Amino acid sequence: FSGPAHLFRLAGKCFSFVESTYKYEFCPFHNVTQHEQTFRWNAYSGILGIWHEWEINNNTFVGMWMREGDSCETKSRQTKVHLVCGKSNKLAYVSEPSTCVYSLTFETPLVCHPHSLLVYPTLTEALQRKWDEAEQLLYDELITDQGYKKLLKEIFEEAGLLKATEENEVEKQSKKITLEFETVEKCSKEYKQLSEEIKKLRVLLGQHGIAYKGNSGE
């Protein structure tokens, strides 16, 4: 489980919705299934997605992504579940905006409070501090909006709210062997250290009578 703790009470429960000949079932933090209620010998019954991660927009939980469902042509079925305020817990609407990508609307009184879906309160103190630091860096104009969003994404991934993609994992590994600076301060510090090392190396070369040719750019 991840996300707002008050939503965990939905775990272990399932909510169904019938439209035409199909019955949809949403089990929060588990999966979404579809069952064709006909007497056809090949009536479809399968998984439209398994609990994967949150969708976060404007620092607010806006939906749950259920991914890696049954295969559909060249991809897997997936479902986004929108959480909206309602008088009772119920699956209210189902659609298929694009092939094998489904959209469900789930009503619940658990999200009616204006602060019920805020991301910040769900984080640990350590991650909240990281977020505060990112806010300060943005305020001081030491990072760009893009850099700020990148830092937030890393915080959400560390909190288990988002799943790191394979590309992100490769990027994290490459960071260990490449020079990459998220802030001006870090870049300046690294530059100073490198400059000192270059001076030492030039002295060492001079002591051994080796000519040094280069410029500041190199």
TrEMBL record:
Localization terms from the record: Golgi apparatus; Secreted
Listed PROSITE patterns: DMAP1_BIND, MRH
Any one GO molecular-function label of the UniProt entry: transferase activity
Alphabetized PANTHER family for the sequence: N-ACETYLGLUCOSAMINE-1-PHOSPHOTRANSFERASE SUBUNIT GAMMA, N-LINKED OLIGOSACCHARIDE PROCESSING
Functional summary from the UniProt entry: Non-catalytic subunit of the N-acetylglucosamine-1-phosphotransferase complex, an enzyme that catalyzes the formation of mannose 6-phosphate (M6P) markers on high mannose type oligosaccharides in the Golgi apparatus. Binds and presents the high mannose glycans of the acceptor to the catalytic alpha and beta subunits (GNPTAB). Enhances the rate of N-acetylglucosamine-1-phosphate transfer to the oligosaccharides of acid hydrolase acceptors.
Domain spans labelled MRH: 12-114
Domain DMAP1-binding, first and last residues per copy: 119-218
Protein name in the entry: N-acetylglucosamine-1-phosphotransferase subunit gamma
Database matches in SUPFAM superfamilies: Mannose 6-phosphate receptor domain (SSF50911)
